[in-house]
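Sample entry copied in:
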Amino acid sequence: MMNELDLLKKDWNKQTKPFPQLQESDIAAMIHKRSSSIVKWILIISILEVTLWTAISLFFNTDEVMVKNHTEYMIPYFKIITYVNYAVVAAFIYAFYVNYKNISTLRSTKKLMQDILKTRRTVKYYVWYNLIMIGLSAIAGFVLAFVANPQMQKISHNPKAMVITIIILVVFLLAFFGIAALFYYLIYGTLMKRLFRNYNELKKIDL
């Protein structure tokens, strides 16, 4: 089913005369509304994502695990990394909020196009930051488990078992990273495609 913008564009293309300014304004206003809605969803999803990860972390007491594995000396470092990570994510969420407020404010077509590009860059940096942090966290977890786990220490004396264990860990890590990347691609990637489609429509009007 065609949406309102597609119907307007279809009717617009039937015109043999130059496009009336009213029609251009109508389409620009509709694109503005859709762009604002997309950025609002980016903001909402990022907040829900942080809430989900925070809730999951409450069910896993990493401090107890480290104490059990005799790696409690790493607890202060992990706390610092956690606080820094939350600060960075909070900064991204604030940037999403600013982008949403900017796009929600009715401005010129050119300004809206600039805000859309800025939002896409912010989302791109946010996704890459999260993927890098997920990868580093997984690697750190595997290294700690490998170093502290008595079973792993026994395996280290068996070269064949050591190679098999490393291969399994690498495959698991790649699978975990792939699932995370797929999640971000499906959620944020889809929204970014829609936002960039709006940008291209605005570009046609601005020409």
User: Anything to note?
Assistant: The first helix runs from residue 4 to 13. The two ends are 28 Å apart (CA to CA).
